[in-house]
Amino acid sequence: MRVVVPLGNRKLTGVVWSIHTEKPEGYIAKSIEAVVDDRPVVTKSLTAMMSWMSSYYMCSIGDVVSAALPSGMKLASKTRILLNPDGGDESGLGDSATLLLDALHLRDGLNLKEVSDVLGSKYPQRVVRLLIDKGLAITEEELKEKYKAKKQVFVSIVKEVLEEEEVLSAELVRVEKKAPAQYRALIAYLELAPLGEEVLIKTLQKHADVTSAVIKKWVQKDVFNIVERDISRLAAYTGEIQALPTLSAPQSTAYSEIRTSLVQRKPVLLNGVTGSGKTEIYVHLIAEAIKAGQQALFLVPEIALTTQLITRLQKFFGDSIIVYHSRFNASERTEVWLKVLDEKKGALIVGPRSATFLPFSNLGLVIVDEEHESSYKQQDPAPRYNARDVAMWMSSTSKIPLVLGSATPSVETVYLSDEGKIARVNLTERYSGVMLPEIFAADLQKEHKQRSMRGGFSKLLREEMVAAFKNGKQVILFQNRRGYSPSWQCGACGDAVMCERCDIPLTYHKKGNGLHCHHCGYSVATPPVKCVACGSTSVTPKGLGTQRIEEELGELFPEIKVGRMDLDTTRSKNAHSKILEAFSNHELDVLVGTQMVSKGLDFQDVGLVGVMSADKMLTFPDFRSFERAYQMLTQVAGRSGRSTTRGKVVIQTFSPDHWVIKRVISGDHDKLVTHELRERETFGYPPYVRLIRISLRHSDEERVKRGADILALRLRQRFSAERVIGPDTPPLYRVNDLYHLQLLLKFERNISPEKYKATILEDLEDFSTDPRWKRLRVKVDVDPV
Ligand SMILES: [Zn+2]
Ligand SMILES: [Zn+2]
What we know:
Layout: E1 2-7, E2 10-15, E3 34-35, H1 44-56, H2 61-68, E4 80-83, H3 95-106, E5 110-111, H4 112-119, H5 125-133, E6 137-140, E7 151-157, H6 159-163, H7 165-178, H8 180-192, E8 199-200, H9 201-208, H10 212-220, E9 224-230, H11 249-263, E10 268-272, H12 278-291, E11 295-299, H13 307-317, E12 321-323, H14 330-342, E13 347-351, E14 363-369, H15 387-398, E15 402-406, H16 411-418, E16 423-427, E17 438-443, H17 444-449, H18 459-470, E18 474-478, E19 487-490, E20 507-509, E21 514-516, E22 523-524, E23 539-542, H19 546-556, E24 562-565, H20 575-584, E25 590-593, E26 606-611, H21 615-619, H22 625-637, E27 648-653, H23 659-666, H24 669-683, E28 689-698, H25 701-719, E29 724-728, E30 734-735, E31 738-748, H26 753-769, E32 777-782
Parallel strand pairs: 10-15, 10-16, 11-13, 11-14, 12-13, 14-15, 17-27, 18-25, 18-26, 24-25, 26-27
Antiparallel strand pairs: 1-2, 1-3, 4-5, 4-6, 7-8, 7-9, 19-23, 20-21, 21-22, 28-31, 28-32, 29-31, 30-31
Helix pairs in contact: 1-2, 3-5, 7-8, 8-9, 8-10, 11-12, 22-23, 25-26
Bound molecules: zinc ion (ZN) (2 copies).
C-alpha cells in the first residue's frame, strides 16, 4: 500500500516494501503520516520483479518504483510540474517550451531543478509559466491525491411515473403552457429513453435545449432521478466481435509448435518474415489465455504507432482489451493500473515497455512483438531496463509462457535459440501468398556522375514511382532525418553552422526559416547569409530532411498528394492516427517519414517503398550498426506489396555493393546473424560478454577527463585491464554544454553478475564521495543498446 511519509520538509508517497520490528540504527525513524490505500496496489510478484530490476540494472528500488507507478498515484510535494491531464493549447510554443513539453511527455513530472537541467537555463520559471498559462502543465501546490475518477451525471425517470400513464400525462398537461422548458425536457427524455433508461444529463440538455436547473425541477417533483457515476476514461469498444481468424497451413503448424514449447514452459522465438501473419497466431494464443481467465500482456515497441494493430485486436477481443498508452495522461494511466489490479476476468493488455510494470494478478502469456527493437530499452532515467529481458526474467522465474516475435530477431535472441535456451519457430511465407518485395539498390555515385539525380531522387526511384502511380499504388518514402536539411553549410569551405552547446550541426527547418538543435533545443532565428569561416556567400541547406523531400516531391510530381509523418507533424495526441487514416483512405499518394513509417504499418496498396539514403546507418560507429541497418531496411521494405501484387523497394546508397545491402536484397537474415556472431566472438561483444557502460558528464572538460581517468584506473585495478575499455568519447562528445566520456566494462558470461556489480557500485560510491568528483554526473547502463 502507499503511504505518505515526511522527508526533510517535504511530504512524499512511499510504497510499503516490508514490515519488520527491528529498530533502525543510526537514525530516528519518523511516523507514517497517512495510509493512502484501502488494499495493496502493488502485487507480490511486482515487488519481486522490481527488486530484481534494481539489482540487475544497478539502480535504487526507489528509481524502479518511481518508474513503475503512474504519476497519478504518486503524491507530490511543492513545485513539481506535471503535464496537464486535460491538455491545452499547443500552438505558438517556442523551442524551450516545446522542449519542456516533450520532457514532460516523457517523464512523469519534473521539479524546477530538473526543468532547469532540461532547458539548460538557470531561470526556467518563464517557460514553466507559459505552459501553465496555456493549460499544458500544472503544478501541485499542496499534497493531495491527484487521481480523481471522472464523474458523469445521468438522468432517469422514476419508475412509478413511467408506469402510471395517467400521472405522466397529467404532469405533461400541467406544464405544457406554464413551463414550456420543463415540458420540452420531459418530452425529450421520453424520446431518448422510452423504456426509462439512463440518459447523460448533457445529452438531455442538448436534445431539449434546457438548462440543468430545469431538469432539477423534475427531480424535486420526484419525476426524474439523478445519479452520479464514475465513468471510464478509456474508450469502450462498440463494434462487433469477430470470430478468430482462420490460420493458413504454415500458420497452423507454427501455432502448434509454439503451443508445444509453451506447455513445456520454454520461451519461443517466432521468426516470421514481414507480412507472414504473426498477429493471427498471437490472436489464437491470446484467446486461449483469456478463455482460461488469464491476463495476456502484448508488448509493442511504440504504442502510438500501433493504432492499426489495436483496431485489429479489438475486433476479436472487444472490451477485454486494455491499452496502456505512452501518451495517456496521469489519470488514464492510473485507471489502467487499477483495472489490471482489480479485474479478475481474462484480459489482453497492450502496451509499450512500461506496461511490464502493471500489477498483473494472473498473467498467463507474454508476447514481445518486434523483440529486436531498441525502444524496449529505457535510456533515461534509471532504471535503464530492457522490457524484453524483463519478460525473459518473468518467464524464467514465474514460468510464464513467453513468445518473442520478429522478422529480424536480434543477434542475442538467435544466439539463445542456437543454445537451446529458447525454441525457434519459423514462418517463411507471407500470409497473403504474395512474394516478399523485390529490392533494388540505386547507385547514387553513378547517378551523380551521370547527372541523373533530381534533388534527392535518383532516376531509378523516380521511374519506379511513376510506374507505381500509374498502377494506382501508393508510395512510402523513408528518411530518418526530420527538418528540411541536416545542416546549413558553406559551399566553398564546407563549414557548417554548429550548435553552441553541442558538437553537431544545426538542422535547417524551412517552416519558420530557423536553425535548430535536435538535442538541446538551441536555435538560431535566421540562418546566416555568409560563411563565418571564409566569408563566402554560397551558404545553403545541405542534405535531405523529410521537409525537403516533401518539397521536392511537389516539384517532381505536382499532381500527387503528399503526407509527412515525423516528430514535427505528430506532436498532438491523435496526429498519428489522422495521417495514417488519410493515407489508408487514399487521400494521400505518398507518405514521407522518419522511422515512424517503418514500423507496424499495414496498408493494402503500397506498391513501392523508397529509402532515400541508407549510408548513414551503415557508418554509425557502434558494434550493432550492421544489425540495426539490416533490421531497419528490412522492416521498411516490408511495408511494400502486402496484399495482392509483389511490391518493390528502392534503396538509395553510395555503396550498393556493401555486404549488408546485399543481404537485405537477398533477405538472408541468418547469414547476417552468423557473420555478426563470428565478429562479436572475435572482438568480445554481446552475446559473448556482458556489457556495462559508465558515462560521466560535466560542464568542465578537464574535470570530466580527469575523473574518467581515475575511475578507469580504479576499475582496471579491480577487474584487470582488458575488461575495462576507455575512457572514450561517444559520437556526441558535448551535448547541452556537458562533456561526455564513457567507460565500457566487459565481463564473461560465466562470471556471476551479482559479484562484479556489487564491486562496481562500491567503487562508484567511493568515487562520488570524493569532493573533486562531486558534481560529476555518473550514469550506469547495464546491457546498453
Ligand atoms: Zn566557408
Ligand atoms: Zn544543441
